[in-house]
Amino acid sequence: MTRPFYLRDIKTTNVGWIKPKEYKDMERTRPDLYKTQRWKKNRLLFLKSNPLCVRCKMFGITTAATLIDHITPIADVPEDKQEEMFFNQDNWQPLCFKCHTVKTNKDLARRRK
After folding, report:
1. Each residue's pLDDT tens digit, 83-95
2. Domain boundaries defined on the chain
């Protein structure tokens, strides 16, 4: 089965989807914030009220969202504004793992330039 064009740049192995090498570092720009009760509570509430992946939905695919993506990556925000942007729900979008990986790869590639 051919993957949709927007998922073709995800690297795969014979055991399934993998994260890019730098993904973990990027995801945890502020690891302290991911561990807070505020994040855990708001994350669950957000995914409950936004249960579908917005990228898949754009292509007519119904997929459950499992991750919250920061539209503007926290790593791109000045350090003194990172916590504010981290919790700003206007900067959140619900994504499935595959779409989050695609966006993360693009963010990493853009940052390398």
Report:
1. 999 999 999 999 9
2. 28-108
